């Protein structure tokens, strides 16, 4: 599964907001592109020169076109749901960020649209399509004048099924009885709960329960300035269903296990201590077990199953570290909350120095729910700028 490349020549649960009166916004002008806001009080910005290399990363669930139907987004202006309008709006937004790395989820027109168009903006890319009949997937786009891809690994969360059959995963009695841990997360109306109807099969069968066709990407990059500095960027999209919290937790644990192994491989192969950044749509709010596990290594209740031989990496959310988690990154009339995160492994050699601004709930470009003429997805982009401190 590993693909080597030639050497270089890159909190408490957030409640849903009160529903608002729906209205059409057919003539609303596009909002100004979001800016990266400096971390308040950071001494980095008080110096004339940075301590080290700076690079930026944006994570964005762009809403796969295959899931866009007027019946699923009745609150959205019809013109804003058309592929031509949405694709142009997404491309314009991605270009405006100017980020060195883009971690995109729900990419379903990779070969026909995003790969070539973003290449024209200076991005190379890697892509992982979801399993089964799913048409979307995850992509990491990186500026080739900033970084060189040296190693990548693809994650199929369906591999958890094989781990059961191989005896590498154990289940408790509650799980065997077909019960699952429930999260305090409302079903999403017009979002993934309606995007892709599934035949879930027998939910008490772990072989069925874990086969959710979700994927992720692990990638190691050599930064070109300074040369030979290596960072790891991971991008993922976890399962959506709030009733299946145990499955999402299993995916999160598998992600960190694979990430830990990947980091050791990169460290040994390139004789370095790579910094780690994990981004994606985790379909979990800050009070959920997945968030608690990713940011502390613990969950609020005993997990239904545990992956053995995992190598967890300590992670911290950029927004929690700098300004507090935003009140929402997903905004529809049926659900409003934070589901998307950029996580980094804290060390003395990396620190976030800015974050991508997010609109307020009362913004006229937001009221009524997403997507709309101003925002082409039901999710908002999040982002951060990091500084690698010279050793």
UniProtKB/TrEMBL annotation:
Domain (Endonuclease/exonuclease/phosphatase): residue spans on this chain:
58-349
Q: Where is this region: Disordered?
A: 183-206
Q: Which Pfam families match?
A: Exo_endo_phos (PF03372)
Gene Ontology MF term list:
3'-5'-RNA exonuclease activity
Would you tell me the protein name for this molecule? Carbon catabolite repressor protein 4-like 4
